Every structure is written in structure tokens, then in C-alpha cells.
UniProtKB/TrEMBL annotation:
Active site: R288 (proton acceptor)
Name of the protein described by the UniProt record: L-aspartate oxidase
Highest taxon of source: Bacteria
Pathway: Cofactor biosynthesis; NAD(+) biosynthesis; iminoaspartate from L-aspartate (oxidase route): step 1/1
Lineage per the UniProt record: Bacteria, Bacillati, Bacillota, Bacilli, Bacillales
Protein family per UniProt: Belongs to the FAD-dependent oxidoreductase 2 family. NadB subfamily.
Organism of origin: Paenibacillus selenitireducens
Length: 538
């Protein structure tokens, strides 16, 4: 049984800091909401590393928004719904496609410089998009440019207090209301931060897998702490694997953007054969789950650990101009995109599920909001459309702040709140080893292809680790492992529950999509187990 809190505490014995809005995380969701919130509120922004450590920083492809005259919100909506395989919230998607362009304008006002061609936005196309609608910056460094611009604005804002190297251990709740957070300072001291609203923008859980495009910080902390607090966690079985991460000896699993295929790159197996025509009519621009499984199939048939991405038929000038970051990175390992085929393989990339919210980013816990990858707004359904994630963060971030500005300040004092658990003193050895084992279990049993036998084995492995929740935890690595174990369990249970294949969730024992039985969301809530929520289209 997972307890409500990872550590014991008594609020009256802790230092207290009061503010209006608490923002957890520093990706596009955290930075954007903090800046918007600061117009009417004092903000404390908490990050476990620094401002430049987030998934947003590594986003290459760009941000999707309807800008071109031949495009329309209706086209963007249809593409999103198609990719989402029947599980998108149509209301949430409508919000995204209609409010996305204004969100882009707000990013520009905050200092983001998107690439231009002849005075117009340079738009590209990515997999499963019907039109060119992806804005990018510095070719393939869109995320870095957005974080740069927003970070500079946040640091210069006197109403935003940035806490680097602080770890949020848990959300503090009272009568299903979030009153603040319990955080640990760099020196190990714990502090209670009280606020009228708390925004989770802590990113996804890519580190559940050994091979991921995500940074080390993506350990699912926000999802896990929201689960412990009693929030609904939705659709955790849908983990998106990016089809093309660099797979080369000595190199990290660096993301090779979908935009490379958008600009005409081919996928070839180790025999040099193009193969996507066997799997989908859109070839290399098929939805990500289709491309990723096709690559795995080719790897197995040819007994290889990778396939090739080939863009050598395009001009050297185009490649260097459009993909300077990827070009330079590959060059570090002796790979020249202009002349060499790049070895790639799938890697965990994006958590489609997360903390369930409404159209204002609000959870079922009063005063608790979620924004960005940590949330499940309903936009992504069973399979996120490329470059919709950055759009989602700004669109719903703005809505969250509009809702927060209507909240009344808290009037209660919570000095008497405390929590104690019968915790054992046994030292927690080899957290690094435990983390690696968890990642291997997830790759083996809860990866791109799943079945009941493997999923049950995975759950058995995770249940053996349950005593971690009843040990005395003191270090960031220990908290992270406990959070990863929570998320791994939620993903595995949800994947076992959903007896069909849909979007990013593929069951070899149930290979077909089954709308008659499974056109519904999976919901997890602490003390309530797995439930379901049918989708009703009015």
C-alpha cells in the first residue's frame, strides 16, 4: 500500500514560507504559468535542478499552431483526433487548436524568436500532420530557444522567486484541498510552502525506461505525488516511444527529430531497404506508434539493434540550415548527416497520461492544478500528435492562471497538521541498482509491445519493492526512486487492465482496437484502485 506521504512531518515544527502561487517545474509549462501568474500574484517556482533542466529544452521539432492561410483549426483538430485513436477529449482539442495561435503570439511577446523565411514564419510538417504548421527556432533548437526566452523573463521578474536545487517531496492536503507543498532544501532542511494555488508542471516519466530521450530529471515526481494526494491519474498505459533516437556506441539516446522525416528522410533496415510501405500508407510520416513498432519489427527480422535514417538525398545546405543541432551532435560521434545514414532505434519519449484535469487545468483536488506533460487534459488521447505538447502547455497554462485569479486566499492556519508512519530504519542500499532494474523491467515487459504474462511479471517485481515506502527516506535519489516505482506500477496496472491495442498501447494478446469494450479512459486513484470512465460524444 502506498502511503499518503513519503516522509513524516508536523507543520508546526517546520519553517514556513507563504506565497500566492507555487509552481513545481521549469519547462515551458512552469515558466509560462509562473510569468502569467506573476501579473497578479507572488510566485515561488521550485525546481530540483536548475532553470535549464527540463524536457522542453530538448524539444527539437517545434510547436504546432495554425498560422498558414491554407490551414485551419478544423484540419489541426482532425489530425489530433486521428492520432489520438479515439481517446482525445474533443472539447480539449477544440481549445488547443483555436487558442494555440494566440499562445504562440504570447511566446513571441515574451521574447521567443521563431525562424522566418522571407518575413513569414518558416513552417514545417511532421508525422500525421496534414499541413505545414510547425514553427521552429534556430532550425532544430525550438525548446532551447523557448526556455531561454522565458527563463530570462522569469529571472528578471521581482515577483517570481526561483528555488533551484529544491526537491518537492509531497503535496500537503487538508479535506481534499491542496494547501501547499513540503520541500527539501539543498542542505537537507525541510520547509512548508503554503499557497492559495499549486501548479504541477514537473514533466513526464521517461526515466521509467532505460532508453529515453528525456533528461535525468524526468522521474514522474508530479504524477506520483498527485497520486499520493488523491488526484485521479488517467491513461497511464499510453507511453509514447519516439521512433528515432540515435543508437550508436558511446552516444546517449539523443532525439533525432520527427522533422527530419518531415523534410523527406527515409527509414531503411540494415540491408538498406526502405520498409515503411509494408506498414502504413503515410510511409515515414505515419503516426509515431506505427513507425516505432515497424522499426522494432525490422530490427527483429534482420537481427539488428537499429535501423537507418537516411536524408543524404537532400542538399547539404538544407540539412545544415534546418538541423544544425542534430548535425553538430552527430558529427561529435563521426556521423555526417549529409553523407551517412544515421543509426536509430525507438526510445521512451512522452507520457500521454497523467494527472487528470478539466479545461482549466484543475484537478479533483481543490487548489491543485497540472500543466504540461504531467497533466492529462485529454488533448493527446492514446497517441500525441507531434509538436502538440508545447502548444498544450501555453494554452492550458493561460487558462490555469485565469482560474487561479478567481480563487479566494486561504484563511485557515494549519499548524496542527502532522503525519506519522511506522517506518523502518534499515538503510536503503543501492538505489542506483534498484533504479536500473526497474528500467529494465519496464523495457522488457511494459515497452512497445506487451502481453498479460509479461505485465503480471512486471507487477510482481514492483510489488517486491513496496517496503521502500515504509523506510525513512532523506535523499533526492530515494524520493525519485519511490516516485518512479509509483509511476511504473500505475503504467503496468493500466496496461494490464486495457485488453486491446490502441495508439501507443499495443497488446500482442489483444492486437485489435476494440471500441465496443474499451472506448474509455483508465483512471487510478489511491485507495480506490483502477476504475474506468466511458467517453460520451454528444
Amino acid at each position: 500500500m502506498i502511503p499518503q506521504y513519503l516522509v513524516d512531518f508536523s507543520l508546526q515544527d517546520l519553517p514556513r514560507v507563504e506565497t500566492d502561487v507555487i509552481v513545481i517545474g521549469v519547462g515551458i509549462a512552469g515558466l509560462f504559468t509562473a510569468i502569467k501568474a506573476s501579473k497578479q500574484n507572488r510566485v515561488i517556482m521550485i525546481t530540483k535542478k536548475s532553470l535549464m533542466d527540463s524536457n522542453t529544452r530538448y524539444a527539437q521539432g517545434g510547436i504546432a499552431a495554425v498560422i498558414a492561410e491554407d490551414d485551419s483549426p478544423a484540419y489541426h483538430r482532425d489530425d489530433t483526433l486521428t492520432a489520438g485513436a479515439g481517446l482525445c477529449s474533443e472539447d480539449a482539442v477544440n481549445v488547443l487548436v483555436h487558442e494555440g495561435p494566440e499562445g504562440v503570439q504570447q511566446l513571441i511577446k515574451m521574447g521567443t524568436e521563431f525562424d522566418l523565411e522571407n518575413g513569414e514564419f518558416a513552417l514545417t510538417k511532421e508525422g500525421a500532420h496534414s499541413h505545414r504548421r510547425i514553427l521552429h527556432a534556430h532550425g532544430d533548437a525550438t525548446g532551447y530557444e523557448i526556455v531561454r526566452a522565458l527563463s530570462e523573463k522569469a529571472k528578471a521578474n521581482s515577483k517570481i522567486d526561483i528555488w533551484d536545487d529544491h526537491f518537492v517531496i509531497d503535496l500537503i492536503t487538508h479535506n481534499n484541498e491542496c494547501i501547499g507543498v513540503l520541500a527539501q532544501r539543498p542542505d537537507g532542511q525541510r520547509v512548508f510552502v503554503q499557497g492559495k494555488a499549486t501548479i504541477l508542471s514537473s514533466g513526464g516519466a521517461g526515466q521509467l525506461y532505460r532508453y529515453t530521450t528525456n533528461p535525468d530529471v524526468a522521474t514522474g515526481d508530479g504524477i506520483a505525488m498527485a497520486y499520493r494526494a488523491g488526484a485521479y491519474i488517467q491513461d497511464m498505459e499510453f507511453i509514447q516511444f519516439h521512433p528515432t533516437s540515435l543508437c550508436y556506441p558511446g552516444a546517449p539516446r539523443f532525439l533525432i527529430s520527427e522533422a527530419v522525416r518531415g523534410e523527406g528522410a527515409y527509414l531503411r533496415n540494415i540491408k538498406g531497404e526502405r520498409f515503411m510501405d509494408k506498414y502504413h500508407h503515410q510511409l515515414e510520416l505515419a503516426p509515431r506508434d506505427v513507425v516505432a513498432r515497424a522499426i522494432i519489427n525490422e530490427m527483429e527480422e534482420t537481427k539488428s539493434t537499429f535501423v537507418y535514417l537516411d536524408i543524404t538525398h537532400e542538399s547539404e545546405a538544407l540539412i545544415k540550415h534546418r538541423f544544425p543541432t542534430i548535425y553538430e551532435y552527430c558529427l561529435q560521434f563521426g556521423l555526417d548527416m549529409t553523407t551517412d545514414w544515421i543509426p536509430v532505434a525507438p526510445a521512451a519519449h512522452y507520457t500521454m497520461g497523467g494527472v487528470k484535469t478539466d479545461l482549466n487545468g484543475e484537478t479533483n483536488i481543490t487548489r491543485l492544478f497540472a500543466c504540461g506533460e504531467v497533466s492529462s487534459t485529454g488533448v493527446h488521447g492514446a497517441n500525441r500528435l507531434a509538436s502538440n505538447s508545447l502548444s498544450e502547455a501555453i494554452v492550458f497554462g493561460r487558462r490555469i492562471i485565469e482560474r487561479i485569479n478567481t480563487l479566494m486566499p486561504q484563511s485557515l492556519s494549519y499548524d496542527d497538521l502532522s503525519y506519522t508512519e511506522d517506518r523502518h530504519d534499515a538503510p536503503i542500499q543501492a538505489i542506483v541498482e534498484r533504479r536500473l532494474k526497474l528500467q529494465k523491467v519496464m523495457v522488457r515487459y511494459v515497452g512497445l509491445r506487451r502481453d498479460a504474462t509479461g505485465l503480471k511479471k512486471g507487477l510482481e517485481e514492483f510489488k517486491r519493492q513496496l517496503p521502500i515506502y515504509h523506510a525513512r527516506l532523506t535523499k533526492r535519489e530515494e524520493y525519485e526512486y519511490a516516485n518512479m516505482l509509483t509511476c511504473a506500477t500505475l503504467v503496468t496496472e493500466s496496461a494490464l487492465w486495457r485488453e486491446e491495442s490502441r495508439g501507443a498501447h499495443y497488446r500482442e494478446d489483444y492486437p485489435e482496437r476494440d471500441d465496443s469494450q474499451w472506448h474509455k479512459h483508465t483512471l487510478c486513484r489511491r485507495n480506490h484502485g483502477m476504475t474506468e470512465e466511458r467517453i460520451v460524444h454528444v
